[in-house]
Write a structure and sequence with these properties.
- This protein has 15 helices and 8 strands.
- It is of the alpha+beta class and about 350 residues long.
- The chain folds into 2 domains: about 240 residues, Malonyl-Coenzyme A Acyl Carrier Protein, domain 2 (3-Layer(aba) Sandwich); about 80 residues, Malonyl-CoA ACP transacylase, ACP-binding (Alpha-Beta Plaits, 2-Layer Sandwich).
- A hairpin with a 5-residue loop joins strand 2 and strand 3.
- Helix 2 packs antiparallel against helix 5 and helix 5 runs antiparallel to helix 8.
- One of its GO terms (molecular function) is [acyl-carrier-protein] S-malonyltransferase activity.
């Protein structure tokens, strides 16, 4: 995750990783660089690691390439965990405060999953459902009906009644053809059977690399922690760059709004598709720049706004140190057109 960046930009990378280790009180940088993967993949390590590497790449842009985010970025947003990086980039949270929040939040999330698994004997995680774009709204309605959100159950006929599926929620609405379910994997399977037999839908299901039911009521304890923790840190508002909330799909409106929505994000649906549509349709955003160790966020944005006619528009990504110089040059050369 970090080794290529450390090798390419050792001084700046070392500064960020040293700050990370000092803030957390242990050498997470060694786990990132040397593993083992079983330790790195634990929620309490992987989440602060991913957030820190995203900020590391931003710092490299700022220090090594003189990329001034305050003057060149109009708005920030981040998917799920990425919301913390977006708040750091926008100037709302200090890096150290965000790291501490993410680390403890992740520890509590892992504890919630462990306790839930022991109590129920079930296995938890997340499953993406993919369908044709024209079917997304009807798929969402069908899922909500089966989950008992609108009624305690769904009448099929006089002799059959489909019960509400407990411990399953819609965790993400990611794009015009993808939602993510979170909760008991066994019950998600039951929901899929009912969708196919009675709901008139046959979405493709893909198990995600998560052993926890994120963005569900199972994470209520993490939301409670966040409500208390955000009262004890310094939040800058207004900050230098507007930031979009995962929960509201709109810019944070005030310091209290930020505290409330950032807490609720632990257990509520990530409205990523609504966020992208808001920026694309209402704000007229033409250029999107992803910063982070992976391309998931960039790919989700690209599904909606990847085909932009404006020169220099569309979706760009800083995720490979070997491409930094070329991307910076291309961005600078096309900036006037993208702003037009």
């Amino acid at each position: 995750m970090a080794n290529a960046w450390i090798e390419a930009f050792p001084h700046t990378a070392a500064e960020v990783l040293d700050e990370m280790d000092s803030t957390l009180g242990f050498k997470l940088s060694s786990v990132i660089s040397d593993g083992p993967s079983s330790k790195l993949n634990k929620t309490e390590n992987s989440q602060p690691a991913v957030m820190a590497i995203s900020v590391l790449i931003l710092r490299i842009l700022e220090k090594e390439f003189r990329f001034d985010a305050k003057s060149r970025v109009d708005v920030t947003l981040g998917h799920s965990l990425g919301e913390f990086s977006a708040l750091v980039a926008g100037g709302y949270l200090q890096f150290g405060d965000a790291l501490r929040l993410v680390r403890r939040r992740a520890e509590i999330m892992a504890e919630c999953t462990s306790r839930l698994t022991k109590e129920s004997g079930e296995t938890y995680g997340m499953v993406a459902l993919l369908c044709e774009p024209d079917h997304l709204e009807s798929l969402l309605r069908a899922v909500q009906e089966f989950l008992g959100i609108e009624s305690p159950g769904l009448e099929i006929d006089r002799d059959h009644r489909v019960p509400a599926i407990q411990q399953v929620v819609v965790a993400n609405i990611n794009s015009k053809n993808q939602i993510v379910l979170s909760g008991s994997l066994e019950r998600i399977k039951i929901l899929l059977v009912q969708l196919r037999q009675f709901g008139g839908h046959d979405p493709r299901a893909v198990r995600l690399k998560s052993d926890s039911p994120f963005h569900s009521p199972a994470m209520a304890q993490a939301a409670d922690y966040m409500r208390d923790a955000v009262e004890k840190i310094n939040i800058t508002f207004p900050a230098s760059i507007p930031c979009i909330s995962n929960v509201s799909a709109l810019p944070f409106q005030s310091k209290e709004d930020l505290k409330d929505l950032l807490s609720r994000q632990c257990s509520e649906t990530v409205r990523w598709w609504d966020s992208i549509r808001y920026l694309h349709q209402d704000r007229g955003v033409k250029r999107w720049v992803g910063i982070g160790p992976g391309k998931v966020g960039r790919n989700l944005v690209g599904k909606e706004v990847g085909r932009v006619d404006t020169k220099g528009g569309g979706v760009w990504a800083f995720c490979d140190p070997r491409e930094m110089s070329d991307i910076i040059t291309a961005l600078e050369q096309t900036e006037p057109e993208a702003e037009g």
